[in-house]
Every structure is written in structure tokens, then in C-alpha cells.
Write a structure and sequence with these properties.
342 residues; alpha/beta; TIM Barrel; 7-stranded parallel beta sheet; 48% helix; binds coproporphyrinogen III
Length: 342
């Protein structure tokens, strides 16, 4: 039995407790304790592929920040790598794929990943579950097929993602072939994460916002739905950054929780997503304000969610230059906010 299960109970809409809180990208980025382990490891990929180290940095925010859930330390880009496309993590620059997908032959050469291809993540999950000793639940995750597709075509970050979008317009059948392979790999991987002990799964669709509503339906939502349907065993959260236009359709997804970014108005989202638990959605930049500002902004967010089932979080990942005391202030303000005050 979990000692603190308020996050999971909220995700299943069974909660009468206070609002649970965790932060996207809470592992790494802001903690000096993370940077120390990261330095010892030498590079990001060593950290991700060494279960003992991944376990250590996964638990750090639980100990140091007091969040109500842990998220396994890994990256969404382990999937393309398991399919045969190796990534590199360049200091201060981010991920780069030396080889990208350019044509049908490249797609045919990709392998459909099995859970065992990512044994190091599964081992990190098993180890972390043991080390957490039932203190808080552990979140597993993967990128949404569309976001992974974008990285595999572009080879890294991009302002326009025009190469990835070009394929949707010029070779839609090829795009579906690749999206299918990514989806199958992701299902195998997430099933492995559940077997290894993940209590809830979150799907990150970081580049949802660059598609038109029609394209989003055809090239992204359809595959997210497939993943959710294939894994009925645990609650699932879908976070589609920028997909304000798809909220009504997301209300129909077979998942329990929808993550909101800060552009999505809360009052409107409660109506459009009436059957979902909502997660989010404070602007990560709000944490640059004074402690007083952070408290006010956080309470304002909680007031707006009101009695709608809610998990407090940011509207996207923490930025690396956020001060730890501001993050703690956000978390403590959520914890202190009394339901009776609503
Ligand atoms: O949430 C957590 O704390 C768990 C770990 C986690 C990481 N990446 C570790 C990481 C998670 C959930 C991710 C997801 C991820 N990775 C996403 C989706 C979420 C989002 O932010 O939209 C995306 C798009 C990526 C791809 C990625 N990985 C980028 C663009 C970068 C470079 C810039 C950055 O975010 O720092 C990474 C590197 C990365 N992934 C770091 C961490 C802690 C920084 C690496 C370092 O230690 O130098």
C-alpha cells in the first residue's frame, strides 16, 4: 500500500484530499544535487542508461521538494534509439540525431522496439519502486508518436518543424507508416513500464501545437488513442502542449487525466474537458516572480480550478534557471491551500 496515494486517487477521480502536486521536469534541471550526480556520470546518456543513477535522481525531488509523485528519469528520445536511430545529447544545445529519416527505405529499416530493447529503463523503474518503498507513486512516460516523429525527421529541435510537416503534406502514407511503427514500439515499451512497476503513464505531445486541427486529429490523436486503448491497466495522462483546439476531442480519449498548458483557459477547459481530471497549468515563468508573487499566482490557479478534479503542476516543464525556493513555494502553497477555503 502506498503511504501517499493522493496523486493516484486524484488521477482516478476518487479524491477527497487536498490537491496533489508534482512538476514536469522535476528530476534534473534545477537541483544542485542533480548536477552533482550528472557530473559524476559524465553525460546525460550515462545517467539515463545506468539504473542506479537514474533511480537516485528520480527520488531527489521527492526528498528535497516534497512532491506527491516521482517521474522516472529518462527521455522521450529513447524510443527512436531503440528503433535504430541513435540520439546524442549536446551540452547546452539539446538532442541531435546524426542520421534522420528521409525516405521509405529509412522507415522500412527501422525496427519495432520491444520492451526488452529498453531494459535499462525497466530496470530503473524496478529499482526506483523498491527504493521509494511505497512513499509516493511512480510515473512512467513516453513521447506521443507525432512528437517522436518530428524529432526523427528533423534530427533535433526546430522553430518551424517544416521538414516534419512537409512529409504530412507530400507523403501522408509514408508518415502513417512511420507513425504506426512508433506507436507499436511505444505500446510495447509502456506495457513493459507497467510490468516493471509504473503506477501511471503520461504521454508528452510537446509539438501538438504546430498542427492544424484536422492534421492533429489524423496524425496525432488517432495514435494517442491507440496507445491509451492498448494499456487499460493503469491511469493515463495526455499532455498535448498547444492543442487548445483539440480539447473537446480529448474529452473523448480513453485516458483519465488531461494536462493543460498555460494558454488554455481554466474555466473553458473545465467545460470542454468535463469528464477528465485536469493537470497543470501555471506558466513556468511565474516562478521567476518573488515568493509573494508565486504564492498569489498559485492560489489564483487553484481558485480557478475550484472543485474540478485537479492535479497541480506547471503548464510545461520547469525551466533550468528556476530557483529552488520558488519551486518549493509553489509546492507548499498547493499543500497549504485548504479545500474548505474554496
Ligand atoms: O520530468 C522529469 O523530470 C523526468 C525526466 C524527463 C527528461 N526529459 C529528462 C531530461 C522527461 C519527462 C523528459 C521529456 C522530454 N524530453 C520531452 C517532453 C517534455 C517537454 O519538455 O516538452 C522532450 C521534448 C524531450 C527532449 C529533450 N530532452 C530536449 C529538447 C532536451 C534538451 C533541453 C532540455 O530540456 O534540457 C532534453 C534533455 C533532457 N531531458 C534533460 C533532462 C533532465 C537535460 C539534460 C542535462 O542534464 O543536461
Amino acid at each position: 500500500m502506498l503511504q501517499n496515494d493522493i496523486f493516484l486517487r486524484a488521477a482516478k477521480n476518487q479524491s477527497k484530499d487536498r490537491t496533489p502536486v508534482w512538476l514536469m521536469r522535476q528530476a534534473g534541471r534545477i537541483l544542485p544535487e542533480y548536477r552533482k550526480v550528472r557530473e559524476q556520470a559524465g553525460d546525460f546518456k550515462t545517467l539515463v542508461t545506468t539504473p542506479e543513477l537514474a533511480c537516485e535522481v528520480t527520488i531527489q525531488p521527492v526528498d528535497i521538494l516534497g512532491v506527491d509523485a516521482a517521474i522516472i528519469f529518462s527521455d522521450i528520445l529513447v524510443i527512436p534509439e531503440a528503433m535504430g536511430l541513435i540520439y546524442e545529447m549536446e551540452e547546452r544545445k539539446g538532442p541531435v540525431f546524426p542520421k534522420v529519416i528521409q525516405n521509405e527505405a529509412d522507415i522500412k529499416n527501422l525496427h519495432i522496439a520491444e520492451a526488452g530493447d529498453l531494459q535499462y529503463v525497466l530496470d530503473a523503474i524496478t529499482l526506483t519502486k523498491k527504493a521509494l518503498n511505497n512513499r509516493v507513486p511512480l510515473i512512467g512516460f513516453a513521447g506521443a508518436p507525432w512528437t517522436i516523429f518530428s524529432y526523427m525527421i528533423e534530427g533535433g529541435g526546430s522553430k518551424t518543424f517544416s521538414k516534419a510537416k512537409k512529409m504530412l503534406y507530400t507523403h501522408p502514407a509514408l508518415a502513417h507508416l512511420l507513425l504506426d511503427k512508433i506507436t507499436e514500439s511505444t505500446i510495447n515499451y509502456l506495457k513493459g513500464q507497467v510490468k516493471a512497476g509504473a503506477d501511471l503513464l503520461q504521454i508528452f505531445d510537446s509539438w501538438a501545437g504546430i498542427l492544424s486541427p484536422e492534421q492533429y486529429r489524423e496524425f496525432s490523436l488517432k495514435y494517442i488513442r491507440k496507445i491509451c486503448e492498448a494499456i487499460p491497466d493503469v491511469p493515463k495522462t495526455v499532455f498535448a502542449k498547444g492543442a487548445f483546439f483539440a480539447r473537446q476531442e480529448m474529452n473523448q480519449l480513453p485516458c483519465q487525466v488531461i494536462g493543460l498548458d498555460w494558454n488554455m483557459e481554466i474555466a473553458e477547459s473545465k467545460v470542454m474537458l468535463f469528464s477528465k481530471v485536469l493537470q497543470g497549468n501555471l506558466d513556468p515563468c511565474a516562478l521567476y516572480g518573488s515568493l509573494e508573487d508565486v504564492r498569489r499566482e498559485t492560489r489564483n490557479m487553484l481558485d480557478q480550478f475550484g472543485h474540478h478534479p485537479h492535479i497541480a503542476n506547471l503548464g510545461h516543464g520547469l525551466y533550468p534557471d528556476t530557483e529552488v525556493d520558488k519551486v518549493k513555494c509553489f509546492i507548499d502553497t498547493v499543500k497549504e491551500y485548504s479545500v474548505t477555503l474554496r
